[in-house]
């Protein structure tokens, strides 16, 4: 694959290294001279100096081919947004992935049509939530293109679902339990599976059904 | 009529003063409180401190009932993103965005953004100024020396 990586900081550099190891053709764009010199020393002609939000620089990087994949990985969300938009809308790049630095900006990426994003901060926070025992419903995975998400719910002693079979539960339409973790063992539930206190459930559902699902399973 | 000016530098502050003088109800928004100085002691409009990409700050500035928004921070990409957000999220029809890079200004203008490119303006004005010069005095001066 031909891949353009915008931003040669810690993230962009490591990603480029891995992509090259995997045998891909990569151009890495970095605008700061000092950083570029280091990148050039390691990657040679793969590194290109310039501001990746400038159309001329992107053209030199081969945006018009277009690349199979564009990764907007700079430390500035506005830059990543603009790079993604130029790649997608201006040059019909088939796949663009943008880094979100500040999770509060996620909504801006969504609004401006940049749907494939990665946010390290949100990922870490998600993991932290996952480790905290007292929780309601935790979003583990968002499948944006499919319009689905995977969430985790823990059954408590006072949960309406404790002691009931799955077929007895009134789970909202557009949701399904896909895993029951009990005593460290996961199993795929069926209609006759009886839920009990301490069960950690994974469910797949359409976004917006979270509250309904939470009420059915844990009653809050 | 209500206007919000995002980025209160040399351009933003003067746009704000001009609009206010023409009777607009103007709110300025800048990351730095010092930017208020540029509006002078006679400023009667509002001034909000914060980043224009922050939705809460936009709300504080009263984005929901703004009739016009001028985006003139010192970052092209910041302006482009803010411009699209106020257009798409709040449906404000009159959004004017400063973009210094002519190619980027053109790219987004083709996608429905009202961009203003001071670089392109300077290029046109300076080229026209040279074209309109009468070269003969210069030629004469060279001959004289």
Structural overview:
The complex is a heterodimer of chains A (220) and B (145). Chain A has two domains: 2-122, NAD(P)-binding Rossmann-like Domain (Rossmann fold, 3-Layer(aba) Sandwich), CATH 3.40.50; 133-218, 2-Layer Sandwich (Alpha-Beta Plaits). Chain A has a six-stranded parallel sheet, sandwiched between helices. Chain A has a five-stranded antiparallel sheet with strand order 7-8-11-9-10. With 220 residues, chain A is an alpha/beta fold. Chain A starts with a strand and ends with a helix. Chain A contains seven helices and eleven strands. Chain A is 32% helix and 25% strand. In chain A, helix 1 (10-21) links the parallel strand 1 (2-6) and strand 2. Chain A has helices spanning 10-21, 33-43, 55-60, 77-91, 106-111, 120-131, 210-218; strands at residues 2-6, 25-30, 47-49, 69-72, 96-99, 117-118, 137-143, 148-154, 175-182, 185-187, 200-205. Chain B has one domain (2-118): Rossmann fold (3-Layer(aba) Sandwich). Chain B is 45% helix and 19% strand. Chain B has a six-stranded parallel sheet, with helices on both faces. The longest helix of chain B is centred in the middle third of the chain and has 15 residues, at 76-90. Chain B starts with a strand and ends with a helix. The model of chain B has no long low-confidence stretch (mean pLDDT 93). Chains A and B meet through helix 4 and helix 5 of A and helix 3 and helix 4 of B.
């Amino acid at each position: 694959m031909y891949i353009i990586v915008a931003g040669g900081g810690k993230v962009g550099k490591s990603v480029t290294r891995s992509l090259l190891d995997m045998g891909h053709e990569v151009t890495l764009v970095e605008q700061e001279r000092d950083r570029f010199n280091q990148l050039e020393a390691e990657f040679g002609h793969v590194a290109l100096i310039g501001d990746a939000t400038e159309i001329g620089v992107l053209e030199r990087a081969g945006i018009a081919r277009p690349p199979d994949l564009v990764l907007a990985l700079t430390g500035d969300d506005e830059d990543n947004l603009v790079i993604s938009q130029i790649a997608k809308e201006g040059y019909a790049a088939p796949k663009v992935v943008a880094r979100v630095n500040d999770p509060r900006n996620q909504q801006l990426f969504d609004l401006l049509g940049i749907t494939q994003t990665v946010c390290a901060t949100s990922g870490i926070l998600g993991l932290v939530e996952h480790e905290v025992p007292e929780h309601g419903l935790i979003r583990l995975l968002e499948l944006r293109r499919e319009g689905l998400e995977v969430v985790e719910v823990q059954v408590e002693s006072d949960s309406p679902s404790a002691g009931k079979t799955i077929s007895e539960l009134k789970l909202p339409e557009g949701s399904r339990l896909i895993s029951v973790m009990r005593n460290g063992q996961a199993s795929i539930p069926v209609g006759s599976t009886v839920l009990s206190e301490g069960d950690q459930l994974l469910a797949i559902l359409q976004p917006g059904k979270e509250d309904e699902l939470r009420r059915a399973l844990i009653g809050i | 009529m209500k206007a919000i000016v995002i980025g209160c530098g040399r351009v933003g502050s003067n746009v704000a003063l001009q609009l206010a003088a023409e009777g607009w109800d103007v709110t300025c928004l800048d990351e730095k409180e010092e930017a208020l100085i540029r509006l002078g002691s006679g400023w009667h409009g509002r001034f909000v401190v914060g980043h224009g990409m922050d939705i809460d700050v936009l709300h504080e500035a009263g984005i929901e009932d703004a009739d016009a928004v001028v985006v003139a921070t010192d970052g092209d990409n910041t302006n482009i993103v803010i411009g699209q957000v106020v257009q798409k999220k709040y449906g404000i029809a009159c959004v004017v965005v400063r973009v210094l890079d002519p190619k980027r200004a053109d790219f987004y203008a083709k996608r429905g953004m009202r961009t203003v490119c001071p670089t392109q303006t300077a290029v046109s004005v300076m080229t026209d100024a040279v074209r309109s010069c009468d070269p003969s005095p210069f030629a004469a001066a060279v001959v004289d020396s």
